[in-house]
Amino acid sequence: MDMTQRLSAEDWADAALDALGRGGLPAIAVEPIAARLGTTKGSFYWHFRNRDALIEAALHRWEERGTSQVIEALKAEEGPEAKLRKLFTTVIAFGLSHRIELSLLGSRDHPAVGPVLQRVAERRVTYVRELFEEVGFTPEEAHHRATLGVSIYLGHTQLAHTARAALPENVDALITSAIDALLTAPTPAPPTPPTSPT
Amino acid sequence: MDMTQRLSAEDWADAALDALGRGGLPAIAVEPIAARLGTTKGSFYWHFRNRDALIEAALHRWEERGTSQVIEALKAEEGPEAKLRKLFTTVIAFGLSHRIELSLLGSRDHPAVGPVLQRVAERRVTYVRELFEEVGFTPEEAHHRATLGVSIYLGHTQLAHTARAALPENVDALITSAIDALLTAPTPAPPTPPTSPT
DNA sequence: GTCCAACCATACGGTCCCGTATGGAGGTTG
DNA sequence: CAACCTCCATACGGGACCGTATGGTTGGAC
After folding, report:
1. Torsions phi, psi of A143, nearest 5?
2. Do A159 and B178 touch (CB under 8 A)?
3. Segment 92-131 of chain B within 8 Å of chain A by CB
4. Pick from A88, A164, B14, B171: most CB atoms within 10 A?
5. Cα separations (Å) of B21 from A7, A49, A154?
6. Is B51 among the domain residues?
7. Which among A121, A163, A178 has the least Cβ separation from residue B118?
8. Do A135 and B135 meet the contact criterion of CB atoms below 8 Å apart?
9. A80-91 helix and A171-184 helix, angle to the nearest 10 degrees
10. End-to-end distance of chain A based on CA atoms, in angstroms?
């Protein structure tokens, strides 16, 4: 590491985010992180009020990384369909962010964690839904397809982390074909009433 | 509760499973559960060797409930297609089991949790895959569709627990139409080449 | 009734973590 | 150089939980 003796609040937040990825919310503990940073609690309680403040700082950092930065990175793609394909093919390849997300699921009852997970989930569905609307689907159809798409993404991530052996070899092709189906195929038995054109 | 002063190991395992649903793995703690049962640690350490033994007992109970019992309950349905529909429509309606599963995801690094999650996930994919094969799909196609189906199920559950507001109103219809697509529609761009040179 | 085994209550020491109190070390400013 | 402000090390008390030790209670065998 660095021999810089003076630390900043951001250093502590980064270390907390790192610990979150390794051991979940309980791993955001002051004394272990202090030892890992090569310092003591004295440093921490100068920069932060208490442990909860560190938790919120780490969650805030994760929320930024998981939503805004991803959506920002997609602005380079042209057209909603290209964005959708790029989104699902790249986002599946992430690693650390997923570890943190799965860890947070176990602590969703924590008052600071639940709202973050809710905002992230809603932001994802909303964004994907808007893309499907831009493609040309009705709001209801777009909402349904977005829900399915996000569900596939979340479920696949969960499977990859718990039973990678149960996944087929060519997962990328599977995801691609699923996006194809979501983008092109008309719903066989659409739950929306048939009197709605377009 | 009951005024029966004498408890059994099963009582402790049930209480541990209950605690697991409320607070995740860290909630399987001897002293709090003892207080909840109206007894003391003296009772626990008579029936169990230590806390890890209690954790394994609770996980074993959950694994049984989540796999064998569900699959057993489906033997009443006739034909693979009916079983698939029944499976996905009923399994989505569960509640406590899902709470436990999401909590366990955050503790998948625990040596006793990871293998259980892996077995459960593999058993689910394998079973659904067999059903798709019975319907008439090739082993590869069945594997792909099973992976997608289980992913949709897992992802939907995750969304329902973190951002229920982001889900459309008629979720049942959405799930039904998704199963329809998985059962009937031929894959638009099948990832398996016809000549299979890999 | 006696006795023994199953079962439980209580007390204790140990570990890990939180948060506070307090006294520095080290650079900065006048 | 002296006062000062920033940042950190150390020490302390407290709480939660684990596991052990030990004695007490209860119910059935005989």
Report:
1. -65, -45
2. no
3. 102-109, 114, 117-118, 120-122, 125-126
4. A88
5. 39, 31, 21
6. no
7. A163
8. no
9. 150
10. 59
Number of H helices, E strands in chain B: 10, 0
The first and second tokens of residue B107, run together, are 């503790």
Return per-residue pLDDT of chain B as tens, 198 residues: 444 578 899 999 999 999 999 999 999 999 999 999 999 999 999 999 999 999 999 999 999 988 888 888 888 888 999 999 999 888 877 766 788 999 999 999 999 999 999 999 999 999 999 999 999 999 999 999 999 999 999 999 999 999 999 999 888 888 888 999 999 866 444 444 444 443
Is A178 within the bounds of a domain? yes
Structure-token match 């109103």, residue found:
B169
Please give the structure tokens belonging to residue B147: 């992976």
Domain coverage including residue B146: 60-184
**Which of A105, A129, A170 should one mutate to test binding to chain B, selecting the residue with the greatest count of B CBs within 10 A?**
A105
Domain count, chain B: 1
